[in-house]
Amino acid sequence: MEAFALIRRNEAKIIDLPSPKLSDPYNAILTPVAISVCTSDVNTVYGSGSKKPDNLILGHEAVARIVKVGEKVKDFKEGDVVVVPSMTPNFHDKDIQDGNFLHAGANFSANTLGRSTPGVFAREFEVADADLNLAILPEGVSLGDGLMCTDMATTGFTGAETVNFGDTVVVLGIGGVGLMAICGAALRGAGKIIAVGSRGVSIPLAYEYGASEVISYKDNNVTEYVLKATKGKGADVVIIAGGNDKSFSDAIDMVRYGVGKVVNLKLFTGDGSMEIPKFSSGRGMSGKTVYMELGKGGRVRMERLLSMVKHKRFTPEKLITHTFEGFENVEQALELMRDKGNTVIKTMILTGW
Ligand code: ZN
């Protein structure tokens, strides 16, 4: 079958690989209908992380049609069109009973598609625990809306889940995840939402999704700006969805003492440290809380997001700036996400399958 795979570091292309076989009676085999390339796919190919297996099939964002289900799968059948969450927790591990969904049994155990198990950029792929991880694409929800729930919406909303009514929220970064964090914060009832970023195509969308103002990293000392805007107190919630290595310590600088929350959604590549400033952390006694999050996954999470889309609470497909027809365009889409000019947020590839 055709599969877009990592051949070696810095090289990914479409090659011919064997089709997957059902490895467990709870699993399903699917064919992608619509896929999207993620910044983390770019990192897997061009990043500095540990060596990945040769010919690892990439991709974790897909709306797909079920080809085959294992004999223990109850709720899905061949032909169903489903949203596949980028995070597929291991619901059979006892750590689930501690509420530890994303790292049950092993660190990053939910984050396997396109990372440690074959991803969705192939004619066929396998998903573990179909009944617990897949969600039917509801009638009236477009492929693009479903596709943008798999990672962007669930991850951005994970950032917004600590927001209370009237909170002042800062969102660092206005790519797909940052825009969804803005949207989630607005839906949670935030007061002022300060978005930080400069990508041209994202700025009008940031306002549309609920930003009160959009400022640029380049023209502002963001920490000073936020402290001034909050009369020195700091923001109630700072969500990191972009920026650079310094964004982590900046976030701690600009969040409020006592109850302030920093939610990190950004992948900090490479080695070294993410620094916590001594002064603004109150010498370690400021009462500020740091969350380090992956987007949440699983079926119920997807069904909840899709219900919000169906009932017009938000429209995530607006993130899609480029649509391609034909699976072969996945290579071009990866390069587009790598260069990420002023006009790119997310791609959608309609596979034609
Ligand atoms: Zn992703």
Question: Topology, pairings included?
Answer:
Blueprint: E1 2-8, E2 11-16, E3 28-35, H1 39-46, E4 56-57, E5 62-69, E6 81-84, E7 125-127, H2 130-133, E8 135-136, H3 143-160, E9 169-172, H4 176-187, E10 193-196, H5 202-209, E11 213-215, H6 222-229, E12 237-240, H7 247-254, E13 261-264, E14 289-292, H8 299-310, E15 320-325, H9 330-339, E16 346-350
Parallel strand pairs: 9-10, 9-12, 10-11, 12-13, 13-14, 15-16
Antiparallel strand pairs: 1-2, 1-4, 3-5, 3-7, 3-16, 5-6, 6-8
The structure holds zinc ion.
Zinc ion binds at residues 38, 40, 60-61, 86, 151.
Class based on secondary structure composition and strand pairing = alpha/beta
Helix content: 10-25%
Overall number of strands: 16
Number of helices: 9
Shape: globular
Which structural traits does this protein have?
353 residues, alpha/beta, seven-stranded mixed sheet, six-stranded parallel sheet, binds zinc ion
